[in-house]
Write a structure and sequence with these properties.
The chain has 211 residues and is of the alpha/beta class. It has eight helices and eight strands. It comes from Natrinema salifodinae.
Length: 211
């Protein structure tokens, strides 16, 4: 099977986008997180496409529950995380599906950010579910990104039945692997895309200003 058939990116696919920076935020705190495993595949594909990458593992950040009365600089590692997000050209949001939406650790991380971190930035979405396709998780993350004036990559990656999706850290289904790898490629391809006009939702998102 060729690299293109399997969804893997060969060295020959690498381009000159070495100045593109892709950061993935993992919304799962589990030690054996399948969300984290999937994001590692996304970042590997982005590296093969010429980008520098960083996994923002929320287990490594102290993020108290968001409190609008508390300055970000006084909220544990919130400012450190926001700085890493600002430094990225493309941000990948990855989350398990919790109660039909995305995880509270990821929501907290995003709440500590605002327009300075997300506006006019390229964002990719990945969701993982123990059951059927995590469609609502992707929809909810996309809505939040729209309220932050981010440009969301049309291609998104959904991993259903996650307990059977991996074997020794590798995808069992080549088609699913290809979908995840494509997200990594698109993260580089669209890193500098011209952003859309501000959204209606962002006009009402006063909490995203002046972080």
């Amino acid at each position: 099977m060729s690299d293109s058939d399997s969804g893997r990116v060969s060295d020959g696919d690498a381009d000159s986008d070495s100045d593109v920076r892709v950061a993935a935020i993992c919304g799962s705190l589990r030690d054996d997180s399948r969300t984290r495993t999937a994001l590692e595949h996304v970042l590997s594909a982005a590296e093969h496409a010429g980008a520098s990458t960083e996994l923002l593992d929320l287990r490594e950040y102290e993020l108290p529950a968001f409190d609008a009365n508390r300055d970000r600089e006084a909220a544990g590692d919130a400012e450190r995380l926001a700085a890493r997000v600002r430094a990225a050209d493309t941000i990948i949001l990855g989350s398990p599906m919790y109660h039909g939406s995305y995880s509270s650790p990821l929501k907290t991380a995003i709440d500590y950010c605002g327009f300075d971190e997300f506006a006019d930035e390229t964002v990719g979405l990945l969701a993982v579910s123990g059951g059927p396709f995590p469609v609502t998780t992707l929809e909810h993350m996309r809505s939040v990104c729209r309220a932050l004036n981010a440009w969301v990559i049309p291609h998104e990656a959904a991993i259903p039945n996650a307990s059977a999706a991996f074997e020794d850290g590798e995808f069992v289904d080549p088609k699913l692997e290809k979908r995840v790898v494509t997200l990594g490629r698109r993260a580089v391809q669209y890193a500098d895309i011209e952003p859309d006009p501000d959204s209606f939702e962002s006009d009402h998102n006063v909490g995203a200003q002046g972080k």
